[in-house]
Amino acid sequence: MSESPKQFLILGLPVHVMNDYTCWLLERLQAKIGTHVVTINAEMTMQAEEDPSLAEVIKNADLVIPDGSGVVLYLKWLLWQKVQRTPGIELAQILLQKLDKLDFNTKVFFYGGAPEVASKAAKFWQTQIPSLGKIDCYCGYHSSQEEKELQEKLIQIQPQVIFVGLGVPRQELWIAQNRHLCPEAIWMGVGGSFDIWSGNKNRAPAWLGNNHLEWLYRLYQEPWRWRRMLALPQFAIKSIIYSLTSIGAIG
């Protein structure tokens, strides 16, 4: 039996800290306990400040992991917590790698990305882990009619692990609206992970991530993100004020 995640508040949003997220998720998967995983960073936190519906989804999620460096540094410096950054793409990869150790053949579903991206990502993982078998996919660009087809497909297949790559906040809102279709599944927003797995894009070098500078590489790849990066200093200022006026840990 794995440890239970310890919950803290950052700007009123929950963040869960534990040593082994994957073990906890696998136990819930085997117990058929539906789980919504959110990977939170400073940018998402600031979006939630402006979007009450996103904030509500995060508060209702079963597991909120510290993905971004800003969130990790907040927990370390202001709450004195021993915590490591857990990028969503890495948690998803570890989860896929450990699925073959379960006693049943887990059904995996990739939803999101441009045409062919999710299918290329699925082929990559089928090559890496042949025991996964077929990974069903659905493109993130489609009509309202195709949305109904997607929902019917999920009901029919009943995948146990569903990765959604629609970007924030769309993927979090979509999961909250549709997780009832597969109530026993692990649902997780994975952002641009399909682009990485398909080979369309590259991740930042490890040394940048280890030094909390992965955002700089992302800005280099996608200069149009500069406006969104303004959320980082805003988060730093607001989180310091919040830590001075609130109790971060709630149990």
TrEMBL record:
GO terms for molecular function: hexosyltransferase activity. It comes from the Bacteria. The keyword Transferase applies. Keywords: Glycosyltransferase, Transferase. NCBIfam families: wecG_tagA_cpsF. This is UDP-N-acetyl-D-mannosaminuronic acid transferase. It comes from Mastigocoleus testarum BC008.
